[in-house]
């Protein structure tokens, strides 16, 4: 008789590795295999939702979506490889290991959005720099979620082989087919279902709940005979705790959002809404208090000095024919208000993607009073469209003035609106003697961005006059550095004259603004294009 630890005689198959035998299943092997692949599908969908949620939240909180997507996804893919290597040690206890991994992944992934948003709201420690603590937390979540997602693959491979032995190539093909189809489902569900219906925080909590249920059902239902009684109870208790935490967070998510808004914007939050494009918050505007408008967590309009900004944006461009005016962006109606102050304006077309924001500017008592009820003027027509796409179909030489009141080029979606191609399209809609004016961001704080805008407009075949005016010098409630000035680029086919139109409200010290901008000039900057954006500081 062969001793237990003696080597097997020649020609005899080696003894099976512990945990490598066929599992004792409560269903037929074919059904068990289908259930494992269904579990792979659900877990893959949840994993991709976590990835997309981190990218979306990072882009929303920090901006510069290309950088955020690159860093988050590269860190996560790297961590997945490390997780796969580490999980090799758990293959002998694949069922217990997979159950523990899924419970932990559901907790970390499900709570990641709330944790990151809490740091943003209560500390404001973002600032766009990857060296600060909050950004390190984002990388930490990417690393942790990637490790856990990567650990799923070898454990699932072991489980599917324990259901029914097959060649390695066939098992890999089945596993990855279910994984990739599940990733497709999660990738489509996030932008088209979860985000619009539930919002980022609730969507992530629901995803974590589904993840926990799927993992627990697969392990405790299908592979319970592979677990000791102690391990079964540990997994049951762990999953119940995870589900209880996620459910409690889902119940309290509205209160959490209100508290976070108060931390970010103060107690005077009057309107908070999620549109299809922006997160919009209005504070003040009643009982004589100052109205402030925040888009995506950043102060965009301050009632204390917005008039100075919009006068400097609009009035210099109105020096000349101005019967037909095109406003790109400016959904708040404040640039339109300044346009309508000029005699001789016959038509104003506003191209704004966010129609819900326009409706708020039309109906909110404080905001509509601030914009002079501009949207009630019969000369104003709103077009719900992306400015770039709309310009491609716009009639040529149809406008005397084009006002580009768009967000700073901080991410991919706005960078294309500051490209040479975009300004080339804007040039084509200008009539004879027409002028284009562009909000180009702060000059003192971001001179390279400002002068890149100027170089890009010139590359589109227009002659420019860059200028700046002093702005607010306080710190926003989100902790971000607020510019001390605003920069603009006035352009036309001929060199534009920098003065206000006859009879229009005056804008003081424009020539001083030209000199102030000129002192920061950076020469030799290449233009920004669609395929080569150049606005990263």
TrEMBL record:
Family the UniProt entry places it in: Belongs to the spermidine/spermine synthase family.
Protein name listed in UniProt: Polyamine aminopropyltransferase
Record flagged with keyword Amino-acid biosynthesis: no
Entry keywords, A to Z: Cell membrane, Membrane, Polyamine biosynthesis, Spermidine biosynthesis, Transferase, Transmembrane, Transmembrane helix
UniProt xrefs under HAMAP family: Spermidine_synth (MF_00198)
Positions contributing to S-methyl-5'-thioadenosine binding: 352, 386-387
CDD domains: AdoMet_MTases
Species classification: Bacteria, Bacillati, Actinomycetota, Actinomycetes, Kitasatosporales
Function as written in the Swiss-Prot or TrEMBL entry: Catalyzes the irreversible transfer of a propylamine group from the amino donor S-adenosylmethioninamine (decarboxy-AdoMet) to putrescine (1,4-diaminobutane) to yield spermidine.
Record EC number: 2.5.1.16
Reactions that this protein is recorded to catalyse: S-adenosyl 3-(methylsulfanyl)propylamine + putrescine = S-methyl-5'-thioadenosine + spermidine + H(+)
A GO term from the CC aspect: plasma membrane
Membrane topology label: Multi-pass membrane protein
GO BP, one annotated term: spermidine biosynthetic process
The organism of origin for this protein: Streptomyces liliiviolaceus
Compartment(s) where it occurs, according to its Swiss-Prot or TrEMBL record: Cell membrane
Keyword Repressor: no
Metabolic or biological pathway: Amine and polyamine biosynthesis; spermidine biosynthesis; spermidine from putrescine: step 1/1
Annotated NCBIfam families: MFS_SpdSyn (NF037959), PRK03612.1 (NF002956)
Binding site for spermidine: 310, 332
Span of domain PABS: 250-493
Enzyme type, top EC level: transferase
């Amino acid at each position: 008789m062969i001793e237990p630890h003696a080597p097997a005689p020649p020609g005899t198959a080696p003894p099976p590795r512990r945990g490598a035998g066929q599992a004792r299943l409560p269903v037929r092997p074919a059904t068990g295999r289908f259930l494992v692949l269904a579990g792979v599908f659900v877990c893959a969908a949840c994993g991709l939702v976590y990835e997309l949620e981190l990218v979306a939240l990072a882009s929303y909180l920090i901006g510069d979506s290309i950088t955020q997507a690159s860093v988050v996804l590269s860190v996560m893919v790297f961590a997945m490889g490390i997780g796969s290597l580490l999980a090799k040690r758990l293959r002998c206890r694949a069922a217990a290991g997979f159950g523990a991994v899924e419970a932990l992944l559901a907790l970390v992934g499900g709570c990641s959005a709330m944790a990151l948003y809490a740091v943003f709201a209560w500390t404001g420690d973002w600032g766009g720099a990857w060296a600060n603590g909050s950004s390190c937390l984002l990388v930490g979540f990417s690393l942790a979620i990637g490790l856990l997602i990567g650990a799923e693959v070898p454990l699932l491979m072991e489980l599917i082989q324990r259901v029914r032995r097959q060649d390695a190539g066939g098992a890999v093909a089945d596993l990855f087919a279910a994984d990739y189809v599940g990733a497709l489902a999660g990738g489509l569900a996030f932008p088209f279902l979860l985000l619009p219906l539930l919002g980022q925080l609730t969507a992530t909590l629901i995803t974590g709940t589904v993840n926990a249920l799927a993992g627990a059902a697969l392990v405790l239902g299908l592979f319970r005979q592979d677990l000791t009684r102690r391990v079964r109870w540990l997994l049951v208790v762990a999953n119940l705790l995870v589900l209880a935490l996620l459910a409690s967070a889902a119940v309290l998510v509205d209160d959490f959002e209100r508290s976070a808004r108060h931390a970010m914007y103060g107690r005077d939050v009057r309107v908070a809404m999620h549109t299809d494009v922006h997160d919009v918050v209005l504070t003040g505007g009643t009982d004589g208090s100052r109205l402030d408008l925040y888009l995506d967590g950043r102060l965009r309009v301050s009632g204390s000095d917005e008039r100075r900004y919009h006068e400097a944006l609009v009035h210099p461009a109105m020096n000349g024919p101005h019967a037909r005016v095109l406003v790109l962006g400016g959904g708040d109606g404040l640039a339109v208000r300044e346009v309508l102050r000029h005699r001789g304006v016959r038509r104003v077309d506003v191209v704004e993607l966010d129609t819900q924001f326009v409706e708020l500017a039309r109906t909110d008592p404080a905001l509509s009073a601030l914009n002079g009820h501009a949207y009630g003027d019969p000369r104003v027509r709103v077009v719900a469209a992306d400015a770039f796409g709309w310009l491609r179909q716009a009639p040529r030489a149809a406008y005397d003035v084009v006002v580009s009141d768009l967000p700073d080029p901080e991410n991919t979606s706005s960078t294309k609106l500051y490209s040479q191609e975009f300004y080339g399209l804007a040039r084509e809609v200008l009539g004879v003697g027409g002028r284009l004016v562009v909000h180009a961001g702060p000059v003192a704080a971001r001179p390279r961005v400002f002068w890149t805008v100027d170089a890009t407009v010139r590359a589109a075949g227009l002659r420019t006059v860059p200028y700046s005016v002093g702005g607010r010098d306080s710190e926003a409630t989100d902790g971000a550095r607020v510019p001390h000035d605003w920069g603009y680029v006035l352009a036309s086919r001929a060199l534009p004259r920098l003065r206000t139109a006859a009879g229009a409200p005056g804008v003081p010290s424009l020539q001083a603004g030209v000199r102030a901008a000129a002192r920061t000039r950076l020469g030799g900057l290449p233009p920004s294009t669609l395929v080569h954006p150049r606005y990263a500081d």
